[in-house]
Amino acid sequence: MINAMAIAILVVSFVVLIVLRFPISITLAGSTLLTLMYLDVPWVVVGQRMIQGINSFPLLTIPFFILAGQIMSAGGMAVRLVNLAQLFVGAVRGGLALVNCVACMFFGNISGSAVADVSSIGSVLIPAMKKKGYDADYAVAVTTSAAIQGVVVPPSHNLVLYSIAAGGVSISSLFLGGIVPGVCLLLTLMAISYFIAVKRGYAKGEPVKRADVPKIIRDGFLSLMAGVIILGGILSGWFTATESGAMACAYAFILTFFVYRDVPLKQFYVILRRTFRTVSMVLFLIAASDAFGWILAYLKIPGLVTDLFLNISNNPYIILLLINVLLLLLGFPMDMAPMILIMTPILLPVVTAMGVDPVHFGIIMILNCGIGLITPPVGTVLFVGCAIGRVSVDQATKASWPFFFAMCGVLLLLTYVPQITLWLPHLAGGK
Amino acid sequence: MKTLRRIALLIDSFFENFALIALASMTVIVTLQVITRKLFNHVFFWSEEVTLLLMVWFSFMGIAIGFREKLHMSMDSLTKFFSKRVNRVLDKIIDVCIFLFGLYLIVNGWQFTMLMNESKLPATQLPNSVQYAVMPITGVMICVYSFLQFIGVDTIRHHGVEEVSE
Amino acid sequence: GAKDAGTNAAGGSGQAAGGAAKPEEKKQALTFRLADTHPPDYPTVLGDKKFAELVSQKTNGRIKIDVYPSSQLGEEKAVVEQVQLGAIEFTRVSTGVVADFSKAMGVFSLPYIFDNEAHEWKFLNSADGTKLLDSLSASKFIGLAYYDSGARNFYSRKPLKSIADLKGQKIRVIQNKINIDLMEALGASATPMPYGDVFSSLQTGVIDAAENNWPSYDTSNHYTVAKNLILDGHQRVPEVLMMSKVAFDKLSDEDKKIIKQAALDSVQYQRDEWKKFEKKSEEKIRAAGVTITEVTDAKPWQDKVKSVIDKYRADYKDVLDAIDKARK
Ligand code: NA
Ligand code: NA
């Protein structure tokens, strides 16, 4: 049964509150609450969903990686990493932006969460880029876009989420399927970053003095070891991807306060406070999005929107295009996890009926939801990037458009050339 | 009046430090879990549940302190074209709505906490309500901060903390 | 009786629409929600849908129940809280989760209390089984019916041929006191972990083993990385279809009867679907070359975990006695 009045209340109150610059989290919770009042559903559901939205073990990666990133940037790891990066791509114009892309890919290979990616890499590289003369909005746009790689390349808890929602698509196939698309994304982002860097006339880095090279490598090595330990630890079964965040904190803590010793131990209190600021904002958004996602599901809004699109055509190419457009549109107001969980069961039967491989669709879905993370009004990755880079959402959004369109291009490529995704899974004999 | 202010600040600092300790403890517990599992083939049965409990408490206190520090993001694409006076009025309206949200967390949060007193958390067997008890507490904090902001008190306590050492 | 009531109700509603009925005969059209965590084609959801269909049939479409599969309205525990509150009217949930709200339901976590499926269902269908279901009303739920969820078995990435092989293995179990004691009794190490992390943890070796029923072992793809299965059937944890007492109390006596009957009428269908799904999963897993060990003698397993049963016997005395009674 369609409850048109309730849907109208939800949509109108959401739009009104958001354009009147109510905090976005309050907008999400508030419009949900108003709709519940109209429906005569117990009001406390908003609060209950907010608590349950946070009560999730994989979500721990977010505070952990933000904390690790804060320790790394406060403790001198940032400078050492930047120096190391300088060594490799110092001569390239916009080199630090390219390093950013690669570093996000590398961290994405560890964390599996774009938010963790932007918070750890962003805390290190956005200040460093600003210091080297890059505009803050560009630094934020590069980092947030590059962070999206983290959800596509394995390990990715979002792919696991998709697999669960899809009711048993092979996770190993999904993980293998994400590798080549991740590389496509990396190359595209590097190209765009380079062109914008040339256009904006960012400096080439100063060439590194030959005498400094051994020290830079030695210092940078210990910082880079954080990544090696995390990835190695996950692959060798020492800890899970979620726990790796805590291990990153522990390693960064030891390195900062017992090896580098640039800052005194009492600085840790300030680091905690700084982490707390970013994390509390992000977690409020996640919590409020969960309540909002609940009312969307309750009112069956995603299903209604889907029906609307399916009435238009039954040609697979057109349907896939429509689904991409639909997901991109839903990605503006919706967050990743609720979107995966709500849309997968609705859309997967439609595409599989037309012969689309569930692994292929999974990667399309994930990249699509990933793009939604950097689009306002609800873009968790965008917000974290803005918080770290201290730029407004508007500025960052404006600077992100080229990256957004580039990623949409990659999305179309992946949609219409399934071999890019399916090559590795088929090679491994997975199905 | 001065003593009252001191006490208020003390309580406020207590909650903030509690949240910071929760954040640090979460990290320590998960690190311990990895170490004991690998070295002693043993994991404390409470570790996951307690970590998540700390996470919930820490996040909800963060929500309130985020209001105090004016951290929560909003979109000002339209309102920046409004006049200063309209924006000042809008500020007051938003403060009132935030206060109402705090009130909602107190009243409904308290009722729900009571309802959840009967059920249990599976591992620790603590009452389920310990998860939800943070709702009314956060509500009280939000009400206090938004009221102070409404009457024009600057509630931000950490000017300059966010500056990353550059 | 229920069927006639349904027809009368529809008649009443038809007259009401015509405006000729007396006020007390006017029947309100109702829409309810039923939340399930499994995907749309999973046997529990098929059971949910059957139930919804029966209710709709018996009321000529006056009462409509929308099934929300795939955790759309939240994970099991969160949904149960909302059902308690009355925000969602129905849910299909594991008795393991309900145990946090209504302690007696925790009995099903006790190991090897049922000899086989027939024993389990003989108890569930008995007066004592119904009594247990009815006891949910103290926690603001109306227990409508039990659904099947088979038996749970251990599977590992290491060899798993006998009870001795479990010793020292790190096993992911659903976190509750009984499961932790069970692991201890078997000499294994209980390892907490969210369900979504289990696959990669089995793959990389963070944990050695996990446990579940045939369909979940299949759909989670755990069988591709933990290729040793032992059919010990340590637990039979049935599902329960339940309604919010808040919503139930608002229904007319007639509607209450219709809903209760429809739930019971959907059980056989759900069990058949479960059987079909289980068989399909088993065939797939056997074809995939998983090493499967049958347990022919349950005695050594039951002896090994006796301490666990003893520890909890006092807590669940009445139900355990009833389960023992159903064995004969
Ligand atoms: Na990843
Ligand atoms: Na978005």
Describe it.
The complex is a heterotrimer of chains A (431), B (166) and C (328). With 431 residues, chain A is mainly alpha-helical. Chain A contains 21 helices and no strands. In chain A, helix 11 packs across helix 20 (393-416). Chain A starts with a helix and ends with a helix. With 166 residues, chain B is mainly alpha-helical. Chain B contains five helices and no strands. Chain B is elongated, with a radius of gyration of 20 Å. Chain C starts with a helix and ends with a helix. Chain C is 47% helix and 17% strand. Chain C is built from 14 helices and eleven strands. In chain C, the strands form two sheets. A six-stranded mixed β-sheet of chain C has the order 7-6-8-5-9-11. Chain C has a five-stranded mixed β-sheet with strand order 2-1-3-10-4, sandwiched between helices. Mean pLDDT of chain C is 89; it is low at 1-25. Chains in contact: A-B, A-C, B-C. Chains A and B meet through helix 2, helix 3, helix 4, helix 7 and helix 13 of A and helix 1, helix 2 and helix 3 of B. Residues 331-332, 372, 375, 378-379 of chain A line the site of one sodium ion.
What are the salient characteristics of this protein?
heterotrimer; A: 431 residues; mainly alpha; 21 helices; 78% helix; 0% strand; globular; B: 166 residues; disordered C terminus; binds sodium ion; DctQ (chain B); TRAP_DctQ (chain B); membrane (chain B); C4-dicarboxylate ABC transporter permease (chain B); transmembrane (chain B)
Q: Find the biggest chain interface.
A: A-B, 69 and 57 residues
Q: How far from one another are the termini of chain B?
A: 40 Å
Return the average pLDDT of chain C rounded to an integer.
89
Catalogue the unreliable spans of chain B.
Answer: 162-166
Strand content of chain C: 15-25%
| Helix amount of chain C | 40-55%
Q: Which oligomeric form is depicted?
A: heterotrimer
- Total number of helical segments of chain C? 14
| Largest sheet: number of strands, sense, barrel closure of chain C | 6 strands, mixed
The total strand number of chain B stands at: 0
Radius of gyration of chain C: 21 Å
Question: How many β-strands of chain C, per DSSP?
Answer: 11
Strand percentage of chain B lies at: under 5%
Overall tally of structural domains of chain B: 1
Helix content of chain B: 55-70%
Biggest sheet layout of chain B: none
Supply the helix-strand structural class of chain B.
mainly alpha
Report the mean per-residue pLDDT of chain B as an integer: 89
Keywords (chain B): Cell inner membrane, Cell membrane, Membrane, Transmembrane, Transmembrane helix, Transport
Subcellular location (chain B): Cell inner membrane
Family (chain B): Belongs to the TRAP transporter small permease family.
Domain Tripartite ATP-independent periplasmic transporters DctQ component (chain B): 26-151
